[in-house]
Each structure stands twice: as C-alpha cells, then as structure tokens.
Write a structure and sequence with these properties.
The complex is a heterodimer of chains A (114) and B (112). Chain A starts with a strand and ends with a strand. Chain A contains no helices and eleven strands. Chain B contains no helices and eleven strands. In chain B, strands 2, 4, 5, 9, 10 and 11 form a six-stranded mixed beta sheet that branches. A five-stranded antiparallel beta sheet of chain B has the order 1-3-8-7-6, with no helix packed on it. The chains are: A mainly beta (114), B mainly beta (112).
Chain lengths: 114, 112
C-alpha cells in the first residue's frame, strides 16, 4: 500500500514549456486534489475531483488543466509554464465516512520555471 | 468560499513550555477542522482533527479546541520538545468545494 504517489519529484522547465504532473493513489478514495504551496502562503487548492469523471476548479486554477483518468489517477497539466508557477505541488486524496475523514498527501513535486 | 486566518506566523518557545496556535474561519457551515504538521521538505501530516459537534479533543501532548460561535479553533501543544519544531497548518473543510482551505502556517521553533 503506497498511499499517494507523485512523479516527478523535481522538475525544471523553461518559460513556455509544457508538462504533466502525475498522481496516483491505491487507497480506493473517491476524491482527489491538487494544491500548490508557496512560501508563507500555505496550501492553495488548484483543482479537485470529487469522483471519477468529475473535476472542478479550486482557488487558483488559471494556467492549469487536470484529468481524472480513472479512480486511481489524477494528473495536472501546465500547458505553457510561467515563472509564477514555480512552487511545490502536492496531490492529495480523501476518505470520508464511517467515522473517518482524512486527507492524505503525496510527497510533492518541486517545480522551477526559469 | 471559506477563508482561514492563522496566527502567529512564527512562534519560539523553550523546551517544556506550551505552544498555542490560533485560527479563525469564515464559513459557519464548515464542520471539519484538521491540523497538519509539515517538516522541512516533507509532505503535510495530519496530527489531530476536530468536528463541529465536539468542543475539545486531546491526543497525548496535543489538543484542539473549537468555538463554533466565535468561529475559531486552536492547537495546544504541552511539554514541547525539539522534535515538535515544524510548520503547523490549520484547515477547515469548505462545504461548497468539499475540500480543505488552509491557513498560512505557523513556524514553531522549540529551543532546547
């Protein structure tokens, strides 16, 4: 049981390049999330998927797209990277119900856009 | 949507002292309030949480209190140890988005 996994761990892009951040969870959770973390600003929600086949915008969706490929996988795509997207990106999944209500985070992807 | 404010941004205590971190939230419908600890370069880890039907919850040296009327909740760490040094985040569940809204974090440093 690996929990929530993310790839890659580190990435350096040039302005204008595109890339996809991958996230997978093996806990059979319905809900998955993408956050970005900037110094001094906590974690801000980019997009989330309440269930397979649905996606919704969070607090800071501009410049990103997402795909909920199946129940396990939720990817985040930067179509044209900008320096303002330099950040640490965390994927998370959520289990709720039967007295349990917990969000689990992946290890993060550290992205630098030059 | 939900808005969560967290204070203080930094907190330095002596080993053995208590530490208190406070958060306020805006959405009166929020019903779940977790606290996360994040060590340098690591992912946030859940340390304790509380639901809106409970006023206080304790787990060994850490406790959380919730005042629904005032819309604020607090983390209390007693008998602090150097390994408690980390960034702590409060959060509230945004009932609209079914997601967590986080505070901006508190960097706790425990001086040995």
């Amino acid at each position: 049981n690996a929990g929530v996994t993310q790839t890659p761990k580190f990435q350096v892009l040039k302005t204008g390049q595109s890339m996809t951040l991958q996230c997978a969870q093996d806990m059979n959770h319905n809900s998955m999330y993408w956050y970005r973390q900037d110094p001094g600003m906590g974690l801000r929600l980019i997009y989330y998927s309440a269930s397979e086949g649905t996606t919704d915008k969070g607090e800071v969706p501009n410049g990103y797209n997402v795909s909920r490929l199946n129940k396990r996988e939720f990817s985040l795509r930067l179509e044209s990277a900008a320096p303002s997207q330099t950040s640490v990106y965390f994927c998370a999944s959520w289990v709720s119900g039967r007295g349990t209500d917990t969000q689990y985070f992946g290890p993060g992807t550290r992205l630098t856009v030059l | 949507g939900e808005n969560v404010e967290q204070h203080p941004s930094t907190l330095s205590v002596q080993e053995g002292d208590s530490a208190v971190i406070k958060c306020t939230y805006s959405d009166s419908a929020s019903n779940y309030f977790p606290w996360y600890k994040q060590e340098l370069g690591k992912r946030p880890q859940l340390i304790i949480d509380i639901r809106s039907n409970v006023g206080e919850k304790k787990d060994q040296r850490i406790a959380v209190t919730l005042n629904k009327t005032a819309k604020h909740f607090s983390l209390h760490i007693t008998e602090t140890q150097p390994e408690d040094s980390a960034v702590y985040f409060c959060a509230a569940r945004d009932t609209g988005r079914r997601a967590l809204t986080f505070g901006s974090g508190t960097r706790l440093q425990v001086q040995p």
